[in-house]
Amino acid sequence: MSAEQDVLLVIDVQNDFCPGGALAVPDGDAILPVVNGLARRFAHVVLTQDWHPRGHLSFASSHPGRSVFDTIDAGYGQQILWPDHCVQATPGAALHPALDIPHAELIVRKGFRRMIDSYSAFFENDRRTPTGLGGYLRERGFRRIFLCGLATDFCVRFSAEDAKALGFEATILLDACRGIDSGGSLAAARESFRTRGIREEMAAAFA
């Protein structure tokens, strides 16, 4: 088992991010056996769940004349427009039914503020509004965060960057993640991990 100061952070393994979903990550469901196996090696697991209200700022449908993957100035910076996804209390927002982590200790919902998107598990995209996860992990005494889930180049990336900035050790478990890879975003994420000292490992290391 992992150390008592370690926590596995499973990012957004939801129906809408898996094949057939509204914003499917290519091969996204292939990580499920790996993530489930990993979770059995961690005493402490936290899950995140994208949880948008209808008409969310980040939805292209909220901006007449705009298309999916366009960008807008959201006041807090550039915001990519996405298809409607992970709408609160819809099947697409549900955790994938094959996700089998009954001992998960916390589910963090993010992106529920209509006018701010949220990639990171720690902060909304304005980079100021916290989700509360950082304080929770500190109060529990965790020091090392291992990240997996969807998608490598967006929600996993921003979560890892914020974990590192908050003083935690952060490790990406690459084979337990999948990326969207839009406009070189996956390469940019890997470069960010390298320059920030975010480690990359394979889940097999925990077998």
Kindly describe this structure.
The chain has 4 helices and 8 strands, in the order βαββββαβαβαβ. With 207 residues, the chain is an alpha/beta fold. The strands form 2 sheets. The chain has a 6-stranded parallel beta sheet, sandwiched between helices. Helix 3 runs parallel beside helix 4. It is globular, with a radius of gyration of 16 Å.
Annotation keywords:
globular; alpha/beta; 207 residues; 21% strand; six-stranded parallel sheet; 4 helices
Helix content: 10-25%
The percentage of residues in β strands lies in 15-25%
Largest sheet strand order: 5-2-1-6-7-8
Give the termini separation: 10 Å
| Low-confidence spans | none
Write the layout of secondary structure elements.
Elements: E1 6-11, H1 32-39, E2 45-50, E3 71-73, E4 78-80, E5 106-110, H2 133-140, E6 144-150, H3 152-165, E7 169-178, H4 185-196, E8 199-201
Quick gist of this model?
The chain has 207 residues and is an alpha/beta fold.
